[in-house]
Write a structure and sequence with these properties.
Elements lengths: L4 H5 L3 H6 L2 E6 L4 E6 L14 H19 L5 E11 L8 E10 L3 E10 L4 E12 L11
Antiparallel strand pairs: 1-2, 2-4, 3-6, 4-5, 5-6
Length: 143
Amino acid sequence: MTTTIFDRVGVPPIALHLGWKLISWDAEARRIRVEYRPRPEFLNPAGFIQGGIIAAMLDDTMGALVVAATDGALAPSSIDMHVSFLASAKTGPLYCVGELVQLGKSIAFLAATLEDASGRPVARASTSAKLMTVAPINAESVR
């Protein structure tokens, strides 16, 4: 099995809580694909995944994109984030594709789309994020 940057620097606990699993990282295209397995406790009273959880999945994917693109040297701190909710989502696998629009010296511009298992878009987001160096997460402590 191929190792990734996340095997070396670890995965944040919130990502694991969201059910995060790296599907692919394309360094040339600067795109990441992540699978999420939402938990039943993420549902709102109507039986759909709460919007804040969906926003967290989009945010988490875009953050992982910066980590992957910089080989763990930098992490993003969101300046702003715009989310468009396109459809409701239930539990079951969700897939998020993140795209690095531009990586500057101090700011990154990112976008992501969250889809259900049938490929139907659930939400889209864009963000600008300040780039910063951070101490890596201990990969062993969050597994």
